[in-house]
Amino acid sequence: MTETPTDYIPWVEKYRPQKLSDVVGQTLAVSRLQAYVKAKNVPHMLYAGPPGCGKTSTALALARELFGDDFRGSFLELNGSDERGIDVIRGKVKDFARTMALQDVPFKIIFLDEADALTQDAQQALRRTMEQFSKTCRFILNANYSSRIIEPIQSRCAVFRFMPLTQEESLGLAEKVAKTEGLTLQKGAAAAIASVAQGDARRVLNVLQAAGAMGKSVTEDDILKVSSQARPKEVQEMVMLAWSGKFSESRTKLDQLMITYGLSGEDVIKQIYREVIAMDVPDSIKVHLVDRVGEYSFRLSEGADERIQLEALLAQLVLAGQKKA
Questions:
Q1: 56 and 154, same domain (yes or no)
Q2: At residue 90, does pLDDT exceed 70?
Q3: Given this model, what pLDDT does residue 105 score?
């Protein structure tokens, strides 16, 4: 089988860390895992954290360091969203776990991605499998929501909490990849990438690749266009117009944002939320405004008309501003 040249691989795969030391952020988790690699003794583990913070990459890097480049023979990767029933645990997982490892390391690793999507019955079966075959196999469970993993499994695992990337880490990743790919990040572009990504390394790479396809010189506008986000300053202007009672001007600004940037209602809500949090108002007012934003976000998720709901939210900002006055 011919390998695909790296030029044709999506950047999220092309720049996946090959070693634990390459993982961006997650310093505490990486140092613990490196100690396990040195001892060649790994417990069952639960990786918990938001998407795009390096959980899967860390598991693959750990397997490479333990088993070498030919790690696939001792590493089984399954996705809980696709293979979530009890039959998978009794079949694929059990068959792989019961066989001895063929390498220097005396155990194999089963990596269950999106383990929080496993059914309750599957998790109960997994608990027993983890007990039975702990001599020949270790489990790494990857979950966005660790609370959805049953307590008996959580208690059998060393828990690793993965944090979103900080602003500085996102900036560093964007600048490193841009340099490797021969891209020039103009003033404000790297900061825009970090702002759009919100701590998600995959989003950093995807946005940068999309903007880089438009030209070697990447501007802040390029980043905002490919990520379908408005300039924070423009959203702030819309919010402050409503807050000062200028509903018609605020509504006109909303029209401009949605037409210029092609934003969906949920995109606008998220950006309004960030600006509300940043407003220089007492906490009591901010609490009320966040409550309103949450209510209208829920209405949109339930299928309400986005234009009516967004304008109603601006009206709520106008009313809140008038009460303050």
A1: yes
A2: no
A3: 82
